[in-house]
């Protein structure tokens, strides 16, 4: 998996051995995600796409506050979308998020994922700094913006190279599609899921 792939995917990395057990507080969910990513990478193409989705989806839904991420990505128009359409949009957004991870983390070549021992505060959030370290070449900086709620710490954004916000990128992508109504965005995400599943990402 190349550094460029990670930058384009705007997703997480690989857990170093023991990271899950050692992490505490806002870093614990990040370590759990990395551990699951490592499992699906080791499965690779020897396992069906749906099998890898089944492994990863429960962890992604646990680690990320996907309803909040979607709401912020859609922006102010979220409140004008009917509840039934909101539910459809959330369903496909969850499937798209998981499929993106599975498609982009599909092989293991000895990479490791280092979690910084200290977090930094940004308003009410804590940022967990991480580095995806390949066996050769430069590491990729990936930070997780973590927010504590009733369900504990959950990720509300991912920052690649410490500055590229996944939520901001999605908000820009969604804006034009939403001019045609939520149905257009739903259809677009459905197509992306199908392409990722078929290897056309």
What can you tell me about this protein's structure?
There is one protein chain. By secondary structure, the protein is of the alpha+beta class. The chain has one domain: Tgt2/MlaC (Nuclear Transport Factor 2, Chain: A, Roll). The chain contains 8 helices and 5 strands. A 5-stranded antiparallel beta sheet has the order 1-2-3-4-5. α4 (about 50-65) crosses α6 (about 85-105) and α6 (about 85-105) packs parallel to α8. The relative contact order is 0.19.
- The count of domains is 1
Global geometry: globular
Can you give the helix content as a percent range?
40-55%
The top level CATH class name = Alpha Beta
List keywords for this structure.
alpha+beta, five-stranded antiparallel beta sheet, globular
């Amino acid at each position: 998996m190349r550094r460029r792939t990670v930058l384009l995917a705007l997703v997480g990395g690989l857990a170093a051995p023991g990271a899950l057990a050692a992490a505490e507080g806002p870093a614990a969910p990040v370590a759990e995600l990395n551990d699951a990513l490592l499992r699906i990478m080791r499965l690779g193409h020897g396992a069906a796409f749906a099998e890898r989705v089944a492994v990863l989806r429960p962890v992604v839904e646990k680690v990320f506050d996907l309803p909040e991420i979607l709401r912020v990505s859609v922006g102010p128009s979220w409140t004008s979308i009917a509840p039934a359409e909101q539910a459809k949009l959330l369903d496909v957004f969850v499937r798209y998020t998981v499929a993106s991870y599975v498609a982009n983390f599909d092989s293991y070549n000895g990479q490791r994922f280092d979690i910084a021992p200290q977090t930094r505060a940004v308003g009410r959030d804590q940022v967990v700094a991480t580095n995806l370290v390949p066996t050769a070449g430069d590491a990729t900086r990936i930070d997780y913006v973590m927010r504590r709620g009733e369900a504990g710490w959950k990720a509300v954004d991912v920052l690649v190279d410490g500055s590229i916000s996944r939520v901001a990128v999605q908000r820009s992508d969604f804006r034009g599609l939403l001019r045609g109504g939520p149905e257009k965005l739903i259809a677009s995400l459905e197509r992306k899921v199908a392409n990722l599943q078929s290897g056309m990402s």
